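agent: user wants the full assembly modeled, not chains individually. Plan: 1) parse entity lines 2) check alphabet per entity 3) run joint structure prediction 4) return tokens. Steps 1-2 passed, two entities, 484 residues total. Proceeding.
--- entities ---
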Amino acid sequence: MQPFELVTPAGIAEAIELGRAADAMYLAGGTNVVDLLRTGAMRASTLVDIDGLPLRGIDFDGERLRIGALTRMGELAAEPTVRDRHRLIAESLELSASAQLRNMASIGGNLLQRTRCPYFRERDFECNKRTPGSGCAAREGENRRHAILGGSEACVATHASDLAVALVAADADVHLHGPTGEWTSRLETFYLEPDTTPEIETRIGRGDLIVAVSVPALPGGEWSVYLKLRERTSYEFALVSVAASVDLDGALIKEARVALGGVATRPWRARETEARLQGIALDDAGALREAAASAFVGARPLRDNGFKVELGTRAIVAAVRHAGGGA
Amino acid sequence: MNARLTVNGRGYTVDLDPGESLLDVLRERLDLSGTKKGCDQGACGACTVHVDGRRVLSCLTLAARCEGKQVTTIEGVAQDGVLHPLQRAMVEHDGLQCGYCTPGQIMAGIALLEEGHAETREEIREWMSGNLCRCGAYNGIVEAIEQARDELRDAAV
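--- prediction returned ---
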């Protein structure tokens, strides 16, 4: 590992002062940063250890859920309020990583985690995310796990977070402090598509620090689901995942939320699907299938991942039926 | 930088590089080689230890950040020469073949029992999924955890 200095700020203001320096990086749970510094996929000369900052804990004011950025994945998954009212969030967490990693990894770090595209990790291959302008080895390489939505010539890596998919479905906001003050973004638009600059993954600026995530009430949240399909039963990233909630009016869908993981370059809200689901009956298999398929109209499969169109369509149908109580 | 580490209740002062993992410090500096290095990238669970009572991966933990915390490794599990019920059960159920993943399995399993995620075989398998065993001794490992769970429950009554 390249040598680095480890500094511990006394408060948020000092953290930002240290974190805005060139070559500085924040260190929270460390599960992603330590690994990628060791492989050389990322570099930093200073790590700003933010773990002692008072950004840990979960508040629910009866309406909005507020999650401190240093709350651990396992802590959020176990929170009764979350399990009751935003079940898709709790499920997305418990289907992520392992119990050990969930004890270590922070919520803020989870949202900023880097892609698991193997070409990003291995310095022997071209990767525009790691080394801008070097090329993309995945486009013509092993791309079974890569994106069919949101990709560009420069990059087809998927975003790896399950939690982010659930939060995007739930209309979560991300709250930041930075050199220019405090700001808030809808999480969905916080993430950027790769286009010609895949190394820029979010709207975060130098020195910006995620301090919290907040989530409004979710209609039907108590029945919402996170369906994750993968190569093995547990401890694996998604090939396709679906976060879904359904608010019913009798047998008809009043409002549905659908977000996708494993298929896109960022957590992907399937808005066309949501619009088509509105007003149809939960047991109308044909309409359900048509609504689900609309999520993939713009899909651009690569050599190895065309199966994600059909798998994703079926996964949306299953998740929506389940979230509506149709099993 | 000098760091004061507490491992299995004993204090150590170690001159550390900030990039050194807890795993490397345990094995190479403190002569506690029971904790194993498998993948060194957080994917296999062989390096599982407890920090402040919670199971974590020592390969992704910077040793310098463990100051003021209680680290427990496999060497600290048996008390006065008496094996933990899960250690004994692993022997009785052949929960290993080569044994390389075993310290990590036991540290994860003890935490699992304390977390209360060992009610069913399915729950055990899910909550132990971060510990790989390339010999495929999973059936024995799950049986050992079930036995230890029942023994600890009986002992608590």
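agent: reporting back. The longest strand of chain B covers residues 2-7. Chain B has two domains: 2-76, 85-156.
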